Amino acid sequence: MQCCFRLFAVILLCISALATELTVKxxxxxxxxxxxxxxxxxxxxxxxxxxxxxxxxxxIAHFRAVPVGPIRVHVLAPGFAERWQSVPxxxxxxxxxxxxxxxAVASEAVVITATRTPFPSEASAASIATLxxxxxxxxxxxxxxxxxxxxxxxxxxxxxxRGGLASLFVRGxxxxxxxxxxxxxxxxxxxxxxxxxxxxxAEEDRVEFLRGAQSTLYGSDAMxxxxxxxxxxxxxxxxxxxxxxDAGNYGTENxxxxxxxxxxxxxxxxxxxQFNTSGSGPNDDYSNSLEGMNAGARLTDWASLRxxxxxxxxxxxxxxxxxxxGDPLLSPDLDQRARQNDFLGxxxxxxxxxxxxxxxxxGFEYNLHRTNIDAIxxxxxxxxxxxxxxxxxxxxxxxxxxxGFEYQGDYAERSWAVSxxxxxxEDENGTVGSLPDTSHGLRRNxxxxxxxxxxxxxxxxxxxxxxxxxxxFGNRFVPRASLTLLAxxxxxxxxGTRLRFDYAEGIKEPSFSESFGxxxxxxxxxxxxxxxxxxxxxxxxxxxxFGQNYSFSATYFNNLFRNKIDFNFFPxxxxxxxxxxxxxxxxxxxxxxxxxxxxxxSLDLSYTYTxxxxxxxxxxxxxxxxxxxxxxxxxRHSATTLLNYLGSRWGADLxxxxxxxxxxxxxxxxxxxxxAGYVLVNAGGWYSINGRITTYVNVDNLLNRFYEEVTGYPAxxxxxxxxxxxxxxGG
Length: 731
What we know:
Elements (H helix, E strand, L loop, with lengths): L1 H16 L1 E9 L10 E6 L5 E6 L5 E8 L3 E6 L6 E5 L1 H4 L3 E5 L9 E2 L7 E2 L6 E6 H7 L4 H5 L5 E5 L7 E5 L7 E5 L2 E2 L17 E8 L3 H4 L6 E7 L8 E9 L3 E11 L3 E12 L8 E15 L2 E15 L5 E2 L2 E2 L8 E15 L5 E18 L19 E21 L2 E18 L2 E19 L3 E12 L3 E15 L5 E15 L3 H5 L7 E2 L7 E14 L3 E20 L6 E23 L2 E16 L20 E10 L3 E10 L2 E2 L10 E2 L2 E11 L4 E8 L7 E3 L2 E2 L4 E11 L2
Parallel strand pairs: 1-7, 13-16, 32-35
Antiparallel strand pairs: 1-4, 2-3, 2-5, 5-6, 8-9, 10-15, 11-12, 13-14, 15-16, 17-18, 17-45, 18-19, 19-20, 20-21, 21-24, 22-23, 24-25, 25-26, 26-27, 27-28, 28-29, 29-30, 30-31, 31-33, 33-34, 34-35, 35-36, 36-37, 37-38, 38-41, 39-40, 41-42, 42-45, 43-44
């Protein structure tokens, strides 16, 4: 017995001699800690992962039982370039290693949305654009619509001024074909509706905009894009208070504050924002208040919790359509008001055990209350064909609750193979309609999904599928397969030619009013037999890199939209029902140029050509909606420009958005059949007086052009905001 004990002790001593602990600290080019980074260890000549960790708020990942000998460290940090670093045997046995990341052009930055796990964008076989926290600080967008309109392939259509309903059209798809995720919580109405004009962007740290059908990874609504945002987390050892305010023309006032910090185990960021403006005309005012928090706790070296919550409340005047391409054919609506109150929360547990595994478990909830009220009938707003007043009282409500649970597992078999799989349950519960005639809907949906990634020095393959059980339309399977190939490695000037091919399918569930109907004097009958709307998506792209900091890419896309839902009037015209009947096609090309002339400057240029055609729409009530016509509000030509300079003492941006003439309708009989093209130029800059005080100015519509994103709804003329920000405490 004593001999066995001695033998066991000798074995333990041998093991401890052959293993050590290692701390990896990840920093950005300014030596600031980078949290949420995936750090993976490999033996020098092995492709099998030894361990995976995620950095804390202070940018630290700690590894135990690291084998003695040279190792390789693989770092994937969203927004930065992928980094491999060799650690010689002598350094591998030391206490810590610091790895500095490099900022990169967007095409080689690490992203999350494309594969649901950190992955280099060029190997993810996806069309994705990003805005970093530093770029958002330059742009200072009030709402999501202000930032998205500057990204390649994004067509934002806002009905009027600030607070107006803002829709997103991507690759010819409908405005309901975009999955929107905020701090890990899906925030679409069931069926895909989302207003980007009332989503405040204070304290947002990163935006990722993924184009193409992505229902394999994200389920319903991801028919043509996924928009995902993350709020800022605390990172300074000492508490940091940031507060500021700005003001501008049109009675604009904006104030905000945040308190953040981090230590070895905990990090937090609590923030608030209040924005008010009177707009440029009667009933054009808008107000939005935001409160939120992002807090994390590192339970062990391999387990962490993160809690995110946001609440915002907005009120806006609705002029309704009145001025068509500069011709005021009606008087503005003076009493219609829109209000929105929403709350979201998510609690996530991340576990990086056993070795080579990552487990993410998230519970989430989204609660939305939206009302649109018109209290009186105003004179002077008459339909020219039928002669009736188009301004009639109503009280429309949307009360939605989405709550659920999601599990995602990632297994790194090798450095060249990663498996992702998961399960999602979601309870969708809501009431919609015009009081007193409303309908209530309930769906309890389940989904399982899986994805396999294989990579090599020249190619990557991404293949996956999702099986969905939806209580409205039943069971459905959606696949995706993508291949990227480095056709030519190139040299210093021509640094690589990459080809990409992608096939995917997308689905969108019916809205509550489509599935569950509505009552009233003109009842909409429920239709439990509705199928999901579908997209068969194909795209192929070519990318050429020039050196390390320049790239050119071109993408062809082809979407076939089937089972589109439309309203069918019954012969008596006293009731109707939604049915699957329409079909449309969209195809085109996206061209992008990305450049980083210096470590402080970046330039992104894009051009998008989109051709659409309605194939079937038998219930069209407007000639513009009949078969053979292009889809409304989708321009053939659009382009964006974004120039950023981010220095240590000052920064500036110049942003441009060009949208060509596009079909649109007044839907009243005035004969308006288009919205004119426009050029929108914005600019901004900031200057750091010292490390604690920063002044800034932002100017929108710098050229003071009259334009309409939706016909009948004039946008703001030139507008500016100037302000000052203070920082107290922190590092």
